[in-house]
TrEMBL record:
One Pfam family in the UniProt entry: HDOD
Segments forming domain Histidine kinase: 478-691
Domain HDOD stretches: 12-203
Species for this entry: Zoogloea dura
Protein keywords: Phosphoprotein
Family matches, as Gene3D superfamilies: 1.10.287.130, Histidine kinase-like ATPase, C-terminal domain, Hypothetical protein af1432
Signal peptide residues on this chain, from the entry's feature table: none
Protein's name according to its UniProt entry: histidine kinase
Catalytic activity: ATP + protein L-histidine = ADP + protein N-phospho-L-histidine
Species classification: Bacteria, Pseudomonadati, Pseudomonadota, Betaproteobacteria, Rhodocyclales
EC number in record: 2.7.13.3
Enzyme class per UniProt: transferase
Length: 693
């Protein structure tokens, strides 16, 4: 028997009673994730499937119940209900009867409980990890029962696990412990746990030097065997492996047997005492199978649960991946999409398989199974040929990348797109009857419809944003064009006036005004080009020069006409600040305008600039602006620099302060405000000094 790199698990099924209990708990509005988790950790297949969708993280195995409850909490309730219902519905391709399967599962639970108790008795640090190891140690046995030919006869001819393992190697070239280890490695169990599973039936003389978890798992199996055989050798070996006395082990065995049977009966599982040990020695199924509920009502409920999984606003891809494993028993598919006006099927981008996006298969390709599924609208299978690449290199490559010797191709179509979902599937895997095929079609259609709709919504959002951006840019450019014309006219008239003036002081003021018009024109151009708020230019400013220019230009208009005294104290030897001149002018002009609106007639504005300040370990220059106006309340100071904040009761007062802070912080500066009602307001701007050339 050849085992592919991806081990098929579609035919593994849990105890039917466990699935019914899980569905019942999930349907109660008062249940918690831990209520569902307590059922899942009793069944090896339920635990395995859930961990396969979301493997255990580091140290999560130490708190197994919490880890499972977290996964339950993060999974759609509809998906969990559909998962339970899938296991309740009878699937006729399975080889193991309910009675034999229940025997395997109860034995695994018994060994798990024994392992957990032994871990606590021997002070092993992670008893939950020991429990998980015991519960999953015979998962390979369940797998072989479903996938290995003539396995029932092999079990009947094997009186104990050691004989069974030898017979498996002889007939199949592998044994059930190897399968268990391979399956559980993909669930996030640490290597020491998979080692314990692989070695639990090894010779005791070999295991006495192994890791404690290996010895605990082997001892739990020995105790399970002792319960049915009453062999003193089993008890002696368990004592050697754990260092515990025989009397304690016998007492622990009796308590655990009673505990497991009581829990099974409480869950509605008919637990016979013989089912707790030696699952391979009791293959005569004399117990009548329970009736199947594979009827129209069950299928309708499963379909309803499945559709509702993909109505949430969470990640459609994440839900698709989880649903593929829990509902279909398959790993997540690779999607191939045909554009509305295209003639090829193109692979979608995948972080795990980046090369898939470069695979393009013609719809009319007669050699591709993927293209055949698209043309026919019917599920198809691909199997790697003995001499690759077979009929189609793209099909062969995809199977190779997915580490599987087969592919399952499910067609899908919705109002936005159409294509094929390609699931990795072992070539010899029996994929079930019509129920299974219909469920694959339903899951694929529901998931791809949700994915396509989200992609369409995203495309619409991007198109809308681009449309709004284009309209805004066009509008801004029209405004810039219209504004530049009067600015040009004003600047021309200023030039004419300048030519006719003789007063040198007035000519200087006109030149400053002309420079300001140039600055405004530059800001308008930069705004329409969307290259930033601050225009390009020198990265440093002569602070003293800028302050004197602003006083000369705006001192009369903003302050003198209102009866406000403007006092400026600065030194011509101030070092340059690390901020472009236009940005510093915009900052100061906003603060000056706000002060002029706030200061009453007869008031005073004092502006000073000094260097030699150290802020956060950096040499800075401080610009201080002090007024003796009415001041601000503490609440107003707290929100002064937020959008819409105002430091004046006049219309428009203070609206430039958010821009001021943005310009200051963008240039690595700091701005502070201190104020009290009736005591005026102080702004302090700390700007780093420009680097010396």
């Amino acid at each position: 028997m050849r085992r592919p790199a991806v081990i098929p698990t579609l035919r593994l099924h849990c105890q039917r009673e466990a699935a019914i209990s899980l569905l019942r708990v999930l349907s109660l509005g008062t249940s918690t994730p831990k209520d569902a988790a307590r059922i899942i950790i009793l069944d090896p297949v339920l635990l395995f499937e859930l961990l396969l969708t979301s493997p255990l993280g580091e140290a999560e195995g130490h708190k197994l119940l919490d880890a499972i409850a977290l996964r339950i909490d993060n999974t759609s309730q509809a998906l969990l209900q559909a998962w339970a219902l899938r296991h309740i519905i009878h699937q006729p391709q399975r080889r193991t009867s309910e009675h034999s399967h229940r025997h395997h599962c109860l034995h695994s639970q018994f060994v798990a409980e024994l392992a957990g108790h032994l871990a606590r008795e021997t002070a092993y640090a992670a008893p939950d990890e020991a429990y998980a190891t015991g519960l999953l140690h015979d998962l390979g046995l369940l797998w072989m029962s479903e996938y290995a030919d003539d396995y029932a006869s092999l079990l009947a001819d094997s009186p104990d696990e050691w004989t069974l393992s030898g017979n498996e190697w002889e007939r199949y070239g592998q044994d059930h412990t190897e399968i268990s280890s391979a399956l559980l490695a993909s669930c996030g169990l640490p290597p020491v746990a998979t080692d314990a599973i692989a070695l639990h039936h090894a010779n005791v003389d070999t295991l006495v030097t192994a890791h404690p978890l290996v010895r605990i798992a082997a001892a739990a199996e020995e105790l399970a065997n002792y319960r049915s055989s009453q062999s003193a050798d089993c008890l002696e070996r368990a004592g050697r492996l754990t260092g515990l006395e025989g009397a304690l082990l016998v007492s622990l065995l009796a308590d655990t047997s009673r505990e497991v049977q009581e829990r099974a009966l409480a869950a509605g599982i008919p637990a016979e005492p013989a089912m707790l040990s030696l699952p391979w020695s009791n293959q005569a199924d004399t117990v009548t199978e329970t009736g199947s509920i594979d009827g129209g009502v069950a299928r309708s409920a499963l379909n309803a649960f499945t559709r509702s999984v993909f109505t949430r606003d969470l990640s459609a891809w994440s839900d698709f991946n989880t649903a593929s494993r829990l509902l279909l028993g398959l790993d997540a598919p690779v999607l191939f999409i045909r554009p509305l006006d295209g003639q090829t099927l193109s692979g979608t981008t995948s972080t795990a398989l980046p090369g898939v996006s470069q695979l393009h298969i013609a719809v009319e390709d007669a050699h591709s199974v993927i293209a055949e599924a698209y043309r026919s609208g019917v599920e198809t299978r691909f199997q790697s040929a003995d001499r690759p690449p077979g009929r189609c290199a793209a099909d062969w490559q995809l199977a190779r990348w997915l580490e599987c010797d087969g592919l399952l191709c499910v067609p899908w179509e919705n109002e936005h797109q159409s294509g094929i979902a390609v699931y990795p599937c072992a070539a010899d895997e029996h994929t079930g009857e019509e129920i299974d095929q219909a469920l694959r079609k339903l899951v694929t259609d529901a998931a791809t419809t949700r994915i396509s709709a989200k992609q369409a919504d995203e495309r619409m959002r991007v198109d809308l944003e681009e449309s709004v951006a284009r309209r805004y840019i066009d509008h801004a450019r029209r405004i810039a064009h219209e504004a530049s014309n009067p600015l040009t006219v004003i600047k021309t008239y200023l030039g004419i006036i300048d030519e006719k003036l003789e007063d040198s002081t007035l000519k200087e003021q006109l030149n400053l005004l002309s420079d300001e018009l140039d600055r405004v024109a530059t800001l308008i151009r930069k705004t329409s080009d969307f290259t930033g708020m601050v225009p390009a230019g020198p990265a440093h400013s002569g602070v003293a020069e800028i302050l004197h220019d602003l006083r000369a230009l705006y001192g009369e208009a903003l302050f003198a006409r209102r009866g406000i005294n403007f006092e400026l104290r600065t030194s011509p030897n101030l070092p340059p600040a690390a901020i472009p001149p236009d940005a510093l002018k915009q900052i100061l002009l906003n603060l000056f305008k706000n002060a002029a609106e706030a200061i009453p007639e007869g008031g005073k504005l004092s502006v000073s600039a000094v260097s030699g300040i150290n802020t956060n370990g950096h040499a800075c220059l401080e610009i201080r602006i002090v007024d003796n106006g009415p001041g601000l309340s503490p609440e107003r100071v707290q929100t002064l620099f937020t959008g819409g904040a105002r430091n004046s009761t006049k219309p428009g007062g203070g609206v430039g302060l958010p821009v001021v802070r943005e310009l200051v912080t963008r240039n690595n500066g700091t701005i502070l405000c201190r104020s009290q009602p009736g005591s005026g307001t102080v702004f302090q701007i700390f700007m780093p000094l420009a680097a010396r050339p």
